## 1
Amino acid sequence: MNLSMLKADKTVKQQLTPSAKKRKNKETFEAYLYLLPSLIIFAVFTFFPALFSMVVSTFRWNLPGKAMFIGLENYIYLFTDAIEAPIFWKSLGNTFYFAVGVPINLIISLVLALLLNRKIRGVGIFRTAFFLPTITSTAAISVVWLWLFHPAQYGLFNSILISLGIPIQSWLRDPLLAMPCLIAMGIWSGMGYNIIIFLAGLQSIPSTYYEAAKIDGANTFSLFRFITWPLLGPTMFYVLTVGIINSLKAFTEIDVMTQGGPLNATNTTAYYLYQNAFQFFQMGKASAIAVLLFLLMLLLTWIQFRFVDRSVHYE
Amino acid sequence: MSSLTMADAALKRKRVARKRLVNGAQNGVWFLVVCALAFAVMLPFIWMIVTSLKSPTEVFAYPPTWIPKEFQWSNYVEMWNEAPFGRYFMNSAIVAICVTVGQLTSCVLAAFAFARMEFKGKNVMFMIFLSTTMISSQVTLVPTYLIMRTLNWIDSYQALIVPFLANAFGVFMLRQSFRTIPKELEEAAKLDGCSRFRFLWQILIPLSKPILASQALFAFMGNWNSYQWPLIITNQDSMRTLQIGLRYFVSGEGSTQWGIYMAAALVVTLPVIVVYFLVQKTFVESMASTGLKDI
């Protein structure tokens, strides 16, 4: 395509010569050929299932039986049934309880990122140390923490408690402690990722800001309060919302370490969905839970987009 | 006059020296704090390695020992005998490699169309692609399982591979990269009689090696570590991936052989850690820029 053609293309868009039109059609055809592999996969494994799960949620479908249309009964059942509703509500509560780890993680990661942002010898080694838990598979680290939390006296955490003169705990088998244990492990494994993001954010702040403030006599605290904190704000909000959305999806550690127990103390909505679908084989009810979980995530994503927009205007 | 300036200079030197000392001490304290924290973070890994080298009796000894009395290397041999870890390893490798290659191919093609071509419905298509990132795996879990059941794909490699052959995020990242390559290059190639596909294959792809490498890395790691889908879609032991194999290995047989379990956990994580050390720089940089963890 030469320059004069380009110009013609722009000025008389409506009246393309037949040959140019043909070329354009050819290009469109070719473009869709390039998109086709992705489109097929998305259609079959993303869009169709997303719609289908709404349909399935209106059926009673206990595998290997047949499906029967029951309208909104699955939803009503989840919210009002004397046996079902308390577990469902508890799972929702647990989901948010588990998400408490996200802001805690954020604060710890920020402190560590600030520490690592100084010129310390061997910073690469430290970064690797904090980052290793993030890249390690969740299944494997769950197995390791299962052993750390072993309820007998030879479990590492219990042996530490003994040496401090504190009575031993049953950790993951204690309904009150099980969730805090999972949260602690989540913080440990998620920290590295947050630190990397924060370090990138910190390093993108121009050093001239700090120098100018120092000349004006600002101390370390006010440097943080008036430069780092506001400029890192959008990054932190991003990490917070992504972290919460990810924590709503948490599955592996729960499945390996507690299977939702004891007494549903760690049964989150995502795990409850799995139990209904693949242990009780109630596909309709599981789909209703999936739709509700999806709405919750959509809400969070919407909040994220809104805030990000606003922060851009603010700058 | 000169003595005054000399005294001044001496004072200044003293002040600088003191400042340096304070800074040095401060840095020393920071260094120790970071050291302590790093050690605390590494503790589970250290404990995993230590336990993996202990004999069954020493594992249950109280107080726990930090250095095994005699190194029980046989734990690393026994794990292969007690569960088909070789098979798990092969399954994981097949699936992760196929997904990485397939996903990268579909992403490159789609990103090329979005970055370098003009076509009807381009914006709509792009929105459709991006909207897939909002649909989480939880919501598609049950229907996808039902599809696999209908296709008779349960316990098959297809079931583990095919759903992951497209990735909108990868398309987005590659499109950004492809757009930075100057249009003049494409026009020059075209004048020389180079077809569009050849331009992609012989010019664009070689120029985009770094971003392709980081995308491949994420695809591989995400798939190697994936858990929920393989758990659901595989029932036979022979089709299990490493992560699932590990889970059933640990939950079975009364859960007492912690030495062997820790050896297995270490072996399962090792490939990813090795890859990480090989490409550490690319890895950290691309993670910081894309903000992506796993699927």
## 2
Amino acid sequence: MTVDARGHGCPKPVLMAEEALSKITEGTVEVLVDNEASANNLKRFATKSGFYQDITKEDDYWRVKIIKGYVCEMPVEELKEKKTGKDLFLIIATDTMGKQEDLGRILMKAYFETMKAYKELPDAIFFLNTGVKLTTVDEEIIPILKEIEDMGVEIFTCGTCLKYFNLESELKVGFRGTTNHIVEGIKDFKKTVWVG
Amino acid sequence: MLRGLPLHSDPNLLVGIETSDDAGVYRISPEMALIQTLDFFTPIVNDPYDFGRIAAANSFSDVYAMGGKPLTAMNIVCFPVKELDKVILRSILEGGLDVIHKAGAVMVGGHSVEDPELKYGLSVTGVVHPERVLTNASAKAGDVLILTKPLGTGVLATALKGGKLDEELTIKLAELMATLNKDAAEVMTEIGVHACTDITGFGLLGHALEMAKASSVCIRIYADKVPVISEAIDFASMGMIPEGSHLNQKFCSQHLDISHDLEPVIGDILADAQTSGGLLISVSEEKADQLLQRLIDRNTPAVSLIGEVLSEPKGMIQVR
């Protein structure tokens, strides 16, 4: 069932979704909204109600899929590996991949582009040392990271490093992070990969 | 929006638009400066009298936030005469007038236009001593921060729109928003504080960020100390968050360092756009207890020490 909630302001889309879901005991309701706030609200509503939810951004609207009822409604591949949200922690401690600098920059950009294209995403990325340049002044990489962030990856940038490089007010994507994030991340995540 | 437009400077303009402050302040004599502000919006509650009260209280708030005293108010009315009964407008104006009188001000007129969408608010003039203007640009490192009303009015107003509030909570919400910041302002000007701003459309995070930037300080907020209407947390988890609040969070994100351990809903509430919110006061640590006690004595809706002002990193908000 598809509910077209485009053109409606908060909280109408949530109310429309709620009504549609109340009419079924199990099944999928897809809600279309034209603003990110409504998509986020639907995500919260679904999570609070204990339903599976998935958001896809189309050209000028968001499609929020909400599944009510038996878990085996979900596509099999998604069931295979239960995502905990704490599977992969990626630490980027450099702005160039490998020794040769110019090649390293090309490789770094290609790495994030490939990650995005194949949707092989870490759960969180932490940028530190010269890596902080990638979330502040690297105009080629910032848009790619923004898209990766929109796909659900948490992005952090080391506050101490931003200060060191005088880039504190230049952060363009994600949030400021602290050494706490690194220490706890290495402890909590199933796998940590350190680049650079 | 105004960037690039030719603005004249004037030595008597004590507070203009540069620091995104609450109102304009213009000195007219060595002992007196005028405060000028206006505010109006569409209905957020169903009862017209309550809407009038809330819009009026909201309009006066900026005067109080600057440490001033309101003198006069004018009605701003946009009304669909063909669709709605004039009785509704009369109730709105009655509510507005009640609050104008509570503020100790006089209603001196107003202006109305026909509009398919109903809106109401006030243009307010107040006074303040030129040397005692409270801006958002003078918070000092070492200060503590006090908030005088609980958060959650944006989320609850959205839940009300969605028909999810019971009568008791609806009344509680309306009363909170219709409460003037008058008592809090009087107490803070008696005691003497460093900086103040009122919490409205940009949420606590947005207004605190304005203060942090204007004062060149870091503001640290302790999430568990921030007063919140408890039902708002449930409604926020359920997706009753107004669009403005989502936008606030996005806007603040680059200057926000929020602890990883806090639940996401906390961020939602701290960024929740408020209507007629409380005052965020930056006061020296020595005067904090006295200020808190006097606010409690005056039955201020909330009296909470919610954070502190640090010298670094400048222009940032930390939430722990």
